[in-house]
Amino acid sequence: YEGNWVGTVTFDFYWGSSSHNTLFRNAVDMRTLRVDGRPMTRNVVALRLDKHSRFNNALGNVLGHGGMQGQLERTGASDFSSSSIWSLGHPGDPLVAETLLRHGNYDHVTKKTHWDPKFRDHTLPDSLYLSAKPAFFKDLRWPPIGPDKKPMAGSIPARDRFLAIPAPEREAQDLLYLGEFHRAAGQFEEARAAFQALLAKYPTSSSAPAARADLQGMK
């Protein structure tokens, strides 16, 4: 899992465990939003590895964002009420932390790059699977992310494409997804409220026809 810009990474235990994954040169900024676009107030974690998620690797990642507050690491059971860079072994598996390889990760809580003392080599390769800059990066810097880069978290093509979408279109799409989420859960009043809010605020958006159709279908 390399070169991504995301809000969080979670290996949970609800639908099975995860093992033998490698996270390399990712920006995990902990700016995760709720489905309605509001900031998360709980479960704000950069890398969450729940029980049985063993023998994973995290190298050269940039974790959190400037000015944030929180703690570096939480092990064992947690109610996830406070922000944390690492959550390891929830709700109680010490082997998650013991089998995790962490090397060359920068976090915005300690404002440091942490290296595994067992490894003297502090040189991070550009990529673990690419031999050269991909053509689709065009004028963007490559590799885009890492504690050895300035700035440490540069943009990637997917992020640029997303940010190029006008904010009203993104917000309208969020409301559409929120309404469809509530509808699928059988929460029809909440679904109607989301669709109606979309049509009231963004009646000419590309998501408006789908919202109208969804409302019509719920009558």
Topology of this protein?
Elements: E1 5-6, E2 9-11, E3 22-24, E4 27-28, E5 45-49, E6 57-59, E7 62-63, E8 71-75, E9 84-88, H1 94-98, E10 101-103, E11 105-107, E12 112-114, H2 157-164, H3 167-184, H4 188-201, H5 208-217
Parallel strand pairs: 1-4, 2-5, 3-6, 4-7, 5-9, 6-10, 7-11, 8-9
Antiparallel strand pairs: 11-12
Helix pairs in contact: 3-4, 3-5, 4-5
Low-pLDDT segments, ≥5 res: none
Number of strands: 12
Cα gyration radius (Å): 20 Å
The oligomeric state is single chain
Number of helices: 5
* Estimated share of beta-strand residues: 15-25%
Large-scale geometry: globular
Give the termini distance in whole angstroms: 44 Å
Structural class, judged by helices and strands? alpha/beta
Q: What share of the residues lie within helices?
A: 25-40%
Strand arrangement across the biggest beta sheet: 1-4-7-11-12
Q: How can the largest sheet be summarized?
A: 5 strands, mixed
Reading the helices and strands in chain order gives EEEEEEEEEHEEEHHHH
Mean pLDDT across residues? 95
Describe the overall structure:
This protein is an alpha/beta fold and 219 residues long. The chain is 25% helix and 18% strand. The chain has 5 helices and 12 strands. It has helices spanning 94-98, 157-164, 167-184, 188-201, 208-217, and strands at residues 5-6, 9-11, 22-24, 27-28, 45-49, 57-59, 62-63, 71-75, 84-88, 101-103, 105-107, 112-114. The protein has a 5-stranded mixed beta sheet with strand order 1-4-7-11-12, with no helix packed on it. The termini are far apart.
